[in-house]
Structures are given as structure tokens and as C-alpha cells.
């Protein structure tokens, strides 16, 4: 039993993967292939009675069909005379029926391919939505983007070619089965011919698979470089480094195209060798049948029909399989990526958080990335509607603490308790729905102001009222009313038509439109000028007491009005207190304020 499993895992791994996503549909696809092959075989078999009529014979016995003579027997049992008209009508019937089945088979394959890619995209998207944030921040962004866009398309093409390979394999089996009915010696020759040609292709298959894996790896690298190229374009252009970085891209492009050319060259060898190999095998069979086995020409002709069909299908199989191998690197990468993503799913509890009613508390929390300790023994209790700021030098752990409070990262040790319930027992999504999150780089969609704030909510009276209220709280309503199209104004890619302050206000309005209890400001004003920062801060201060607010800030002037300030250093809490108290009692805080001349 273990041996069978090993053989299946080794030789049918891809079939098992497709079956996992398509289940019984794979067998329907196989059934269509069998029907097409059988109908084609029956149609071809009717050529033999025609050959018996070559010498002006009006009746055919079908004796040259061997074990396939049951076709003739069946026709005669229906009271039909086996004459030229009858044979032609039956032959036409078989081929028309074959054409109809083949049409539906092709349509079904197209449906199957669409079903497969839709399911794959949705499963991958669903799984990726559940990954641990800690895994995401250490992942290769280029690989993620390439896998979820380019590699999925290549996986779809891989399925198409694998399905073609499977169907051609079925056709070969059907024709070989017909050959056994007519002449067992012919079947053996087909087997030998197919084995020899497959042996010739084996090394090409191996090289193609290797080139495909290299292609996927180089595509990951290129996608990552493109992301950085676009994201850092302003800096690269302002410092005349575009040409330097472009050279890196060109090297990646060259590597990709070298792999693509190698794959194309191997494919060309297969395509060009197909017909010569087929003719060589056909010629060899004729010589063997007539010279060595003393077979008569009649059976040879029908044998050759099946032989040609079988060899033709075998060559198509080899070509389809090689095209599948060209794309197999993407399929292997996708399978590995799915396993990795599923392994890195976030553990989620069942306790639903409807609202933050009492407090959020960290109890002796520890966190590490690899062997590096990021947070050490953090204990802090934050009451509902309290405003708490986190300050410290870069690398002090303040943003990491906020990430834990936001439910993005679970603690390695200790308890994160929300209203007294351990985070491990909480449905974290229900908690995060009560959170508004504003970062240094505001998220702006290329869409209308209304859709940016409401996230595509229905334009009904209730939502419009909430939208206008959110604009007022964020102090952006005057700007919106001044626009010619009002809230239907399109903001452009990444808010290209907005100032930094306007972007932040749109972001604040979006969070306030939602029914939130917690508002997180993570360096939200650090990229703004002092005047705009002060205006944004006034908007946030007006929200004090209405929400539980967490603030991470380098500029200490923005946190003067916080209820409490948490001073952090090297992953530990140094001191907690009000702004005025810390100026007196904390040497670290006093030094930070003096450096900023506050």
C-alpha cells in the first residue's frame, strides 16, 4: 500500500492536485475523451468494408476487421444490407457523432479551466487573507505578487496542457485497444514505437522542467524589482539613479528571456522531430508486417489507420506534456506557495467582540523575530476612551506594541486581554472591525471621495448622513464642498490631486465613517508640515474621549494632550505618565523633547 502511495505521489502528483480542486469533474473529462476515441475508432473501422468493395464488390463481409467484426454483425442484425450506401451512412454517423461529442468535450474543458482558475484564485485569496501578519512582513513581496498574478495564469495554461496530455493518453489507449482487437502484433509494435519515441523525449522533458523552474524564480525577482522601481520612482528620478536601477531590471529581463528562449528551443526540437519520427515508425511497421510477418495488405491498411492515429495521439501527448512542463515551474511554485500560506494561517478564536467596553491589557508580553527579542515583559492596561501615546527612539518597539494592540501580531508569551478575554480565544476579525488605522502613508484609492471614505457603501440617505458627519469630524467637509463634483470627485491614483494633509483627513474620515471603538495613529502626521500637522492634531484632539486612541509619534508636540505617554527603549517600557510629569521624571523623555526644542 505504501508503495502504491509513493508511486502516486511521484508520478501522479499533478493529477492529484487537479483532482483536489476539480473532484469528479476530472472523470467526466476523461469520459469525454474515451467517447471521442471510441467513436473515432468505430468510424475508422468502417473503412475496411469499403476496401473490400474496391474490386466492384457490392457486398462486404467485414471479415478483415478481426474481432471488430461485431460492428458488421450488429449492422446486419438490424436487417441492413452491408452495401456501399449503408457503410457510408454508418461511417458518417460515427464521425458526426464524434464531432458533436468533441464539441461538447471542448466546451466542457473550457468550463473546467475557468472553474479551476476561479477556484484557485478565490482559495489563494481567502488563504492569504488569513495569514499571520508576522509572516507577511518577512515575505518576498515580489514572489507574492508574481504568484497571485502571473503564476496563476501560467498554472491555468498548465492545466489546459495537462488536460490535453491526459486526453491524448486516453486516445492512445483507445487506439491501442482497437489495435489489439484487430491484430495483437500491431499493438506490440505501437507499444515499442511509443516507448522508443518517449525515451528520446525523456532528456528534453527534464531540461524543460528545469528551465521552467528557473523562469519562475527569475520572474519573482523581476516582479519584486518592479514594485521597488515604481514605489521609489520619485527618489530614483530626483537623484538621477533611474538608469542605474534600470540596469538591474535589464539584467533580470535578460535572465527571464534566456530561460524563455531555452524553453522555446526545446519546444522547437519536439515540434520538428514529431513528423519524422512518426513516418519512420510507420515505415518500419509496414516493413515488419509485410516482410517479416507475411501479413496481407488488407489488415495492414486498417492496422495503419489505427497505428497512425495512435502514434499521432502519442506525438500530441508528448508535445502537450512538454508544454505542460514548460509551465510546471509555475504550478510547482503555486503548490508550494499554497502549502506555505495554509501553514501560516492565523489561529483564530470564537469569542466575538461586539464593542470595546472596558479595557485592553497587556500582561507580561514578550515577542521575538527569530532570535532577536523585540518586546520584553510589556505590561500595560488601557481603559476605554483613553488616549495613549507611545514614544521612543527608532527600534524601541513602540510600533510593535501598537501592532499587538491592533491584533496584527500575537504575543509569543504573556496575555493580550480585550475586556478580560485572552486574544487567543477571540475572533480577531470581529475585534479588528472596531479599529480605525491611520498610517504615515495614507491609503487613497483611485475612486470618488465618497467611495474612498465609505469603501463603496450604498448611496442611501443613512450612509450619506454618516459620510457627511465623518467629513465634519475630520475637518475635510469644506474641501469636499468646494469641488465641482462634490463627493463624486475622483481623487486619482494614490490621491495625486491631494495635499498630504488632505490625504490624511480623507483617511481619518474613512475610519470615522466605520463603527469603531479604537483609533490608531501610527506616525500619521510625521510626513506633514508643521501647520498641517497642527491642524490634523486639532481634529484628532477633538475626538478625545469618544474613542480609545493609540498614537505613535516621533514629533512629541503632537502628543501633549494624550492622557498617558508610554516611553519605550530597547523593547521595554521605561516609564508611563502625562506629558508634564515625564518632562520632570523621565531623563529619556526630557532628552527627546530637548532635541526637538520643545
What does this structure look like?
The chain is α/β, with parallel strands linked by helices. The protein folds into 2 domains: 8-343, ABC transporter type 1, transmembrane domain (ABC transporter transmembrane region fold); 359-595, P-loop containing nucleotide triphosphate hydrolases (Rossmann fold). Helices cover 64% and strands 11% of the residues. It has helices at 2-11, 13-22, 25-45, 47-52, 70-77, 84-129, 133-137, 141-182, 184-231, 233-238, 242-292, 297-343, 398-405, 428-432, 449-454, 461-473, 477-482, 500-513, 530-541, 579-585, 587-595; strands at residues 359-369, 372-383, 387-392, 413-418, 421-422, 435-439, 518-522, 548-552, 564-569, 572-577. A hairpin with a 2-residue loop joins strand 9 (564-569) and strand 10 (572-577). Helix 3 packs antiparallel against helix 6, helix 3 packs parallel to helix 8 and helix 8 runs antiparallel to helix 9. The longest helix has 51 residues, at 242-292. The protein starts with a helix and ends with a helix.
Throw out a few tags for this protein.
ABC transporter transmembrane region fold; 598 residues; alpha/beta; Rossmann fold
Topology at a glance:
Blueprint: H1 2-11, H2 13-22, H3 25-45, H4 47-52, H5 70-77, H6 84-129, H7 133-137, H8 141-182, H9 184-231, H10 233-238, H11 242-292, H12 297-343, E1 359-369, E2 372-383, E3 387-392, H13 398-405, E4 413-418, E5 421-422, H14 428-432, E6 435-439, H15 449-454, H16 461-473, H17 477-482, H18 500-513, E7 518-522, H19 530-541, E8 548-552, E9 564-569, E10 572-577, H20 579-585, H21 587-595
Parallel strand pairs: 3-8, 3-9, 6-7, 7-8
Antiparallel strand pairs: 1-2, 1-4, 4-5, 9-10
Helix pairs in contact: 3-6, 3-8, 6-8, 8-9, 8-12, 9-11, 9-12, 11-12, 16-18, 20-21
Amino acid at each position: 500500500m505504501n508503495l502504491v502511495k509513493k508511486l502516486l505521489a511521484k508520478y501522479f502528483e499533478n493529477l492529484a492536485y487537479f483532482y483536489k480542486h476539480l473532484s469528479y469533474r476530472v472523470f467526466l473529462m476523461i469520459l469525454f475523451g474515451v467517447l471521442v476515441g471510441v467513436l473515432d475508432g468505430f468510424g475508422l473501422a468502417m473503412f475496411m468494408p469499403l476496401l473490400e468493395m474496391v474490386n466492384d464488390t457490392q457486398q462486404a463481409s467485414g471479415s478483415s476487421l478481426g474481432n471488430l467484426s461485431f460492428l458488421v454483425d450488429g449492422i446486419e442484425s438490424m436487417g441492413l444490407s452491408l452495401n456501399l450506401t449503408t457503410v457510408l451512412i454508418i461511417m458518417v454517423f460515427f464521425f458526426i457523432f464524434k464531432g458533436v461529442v468533441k464539441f461538447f468535450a471542448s466546451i466542457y474543458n473550457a468550463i473546467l479551466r475557468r472553474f479551476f482558475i476561479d477556484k484557485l484564485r478565490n482559495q489563494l485569496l481567502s488563504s492569504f487573507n488569513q495569514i499571520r501578519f508576522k509572516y507577511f512582513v518577512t515575505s518576498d513581496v515580489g514572489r507574492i505578487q508574481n504568484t497571485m498574478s502571473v503564476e496563476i495564469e501560467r498554472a491555468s495554461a498548465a492545466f489546459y496542457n495537462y488536460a490535453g496530455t491526459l486526453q491524448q493518453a486516453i486516445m492512445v489507449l483507445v487506439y491501442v485497444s482497437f489495435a489489439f482487437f484487430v491484430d495483437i502484433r500491431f499493438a506490440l509494435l505501437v507499444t515499442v514505437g511509443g516507448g522508443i519515441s518517449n525515451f528520446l523525449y525523456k532528456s528534453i522533458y527534464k531540461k524543460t522542467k528545469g528551465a521552467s523552474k528557473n523562469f519562475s524564480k527569475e520572474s519573482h525577482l523581476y516582479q519584486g524589482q518592479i514594485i521597488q522601481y515604481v514605489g521609489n520612482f520619485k527618489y530614483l528620478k530626483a537623484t538621477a539613479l533611474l538608469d542605474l536601477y534600470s540596469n538591474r531590471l535589464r539584467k533580470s529581463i535578460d535572465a527571464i528571456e534566456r530561460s524563455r528562449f531555452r524553453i522555446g528551443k526545446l519546444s522547437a526540437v519536439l515540434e520538428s522531430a514529431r513528423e519524422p519520427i512518426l513516418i519512420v515508425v510507420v515505415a518500419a511497421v509496414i516493413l515488419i508486417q509485410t516482410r517479416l510477418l507475411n501479413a496481407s495488405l488488407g489488415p495492414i491498411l486498417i492496422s495503419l489507420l489505427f497505428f497512425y492515429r495512435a502514434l499521432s495521439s502519442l506525438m500530441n501527448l508528448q508535445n502537450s506534456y512538454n508544454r505542460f512542463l514548460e509551465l510546471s515551474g509555475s504550478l510547482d511554485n503555486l503548490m508550494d506557495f499554497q502549502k506555505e500560506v495554509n501553514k501560516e494561517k492565523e489561529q483564530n478564536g470564537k469569542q466575538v467582540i461586539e464593542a470595546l467596553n472596558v479595557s485592553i491589557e497587556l500582561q507580561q508580553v514578550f515577542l521575538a523575530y527569530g532570535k532577536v527579542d523585540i518586546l520584553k515583559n510589556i505590561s500595560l492596561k488601557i481603559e476605554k476612551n483613553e488616549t495613549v501615546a507611545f514614544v521612543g527612539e527608532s527600534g524601541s518597539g513602540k510600533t510593535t506594541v501598537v501592532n499587538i494592540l491592533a491584533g496584527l501580531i500575537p504575543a509569543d508569551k504573556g496575555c493580550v486581554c480585550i475586556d478580560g478575554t485572552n486574544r487567543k480565544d477571540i475572533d480577531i476579525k470581529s475585534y479588528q472591525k472596531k479599529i480605525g488605522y491611520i498610517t504615515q502613508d495614507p491609503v487613497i484609492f483611485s475612486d470618488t471621495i465618497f467611495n474612498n471614505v465609505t469603501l463603496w457603501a450604498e448611496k442611501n440617505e443613512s450612509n450619506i448622513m454618516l459620510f457627511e458627519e465623518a467629513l465634519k469630524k475630520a475637518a475635510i467637509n469644506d474641501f469636499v464642498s468646494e469641488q465641482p463634483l462634490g463627493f463624486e470627485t475622483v481623487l486619482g491614483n494614490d490621491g495625486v490631486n491631494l495635499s498630504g494633509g488632505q490625504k490624511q483627513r480623507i483617511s481619518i474620515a474613512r475610519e470615522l465613517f466605520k463603527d469603531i471603538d479604537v483609533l490608531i495613529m501610527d506616525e500619521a502626521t510625521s510626513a506633514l508640515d508643521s501647520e498641517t500637522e497642527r491642524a490634523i492634531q486639532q481634529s484628532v484632539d477633538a475626538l478625545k474621549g469618544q474613542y480609545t486612541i493609540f498614537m505613535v509619534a516621533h514629533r512629541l508636540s503632537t502628543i501633549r494632550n494624550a492622557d498617558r505617554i508610554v516611553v519605550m527603549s530597547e523593547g521595554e517600557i521605561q516609564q508611563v505618565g502625562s506629558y508634564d510629569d515625564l518632562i520632570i521624571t523621565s531623563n529619556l523623555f526630557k532628552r527627546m523633547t530637548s532635541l526637538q526644542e520643545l
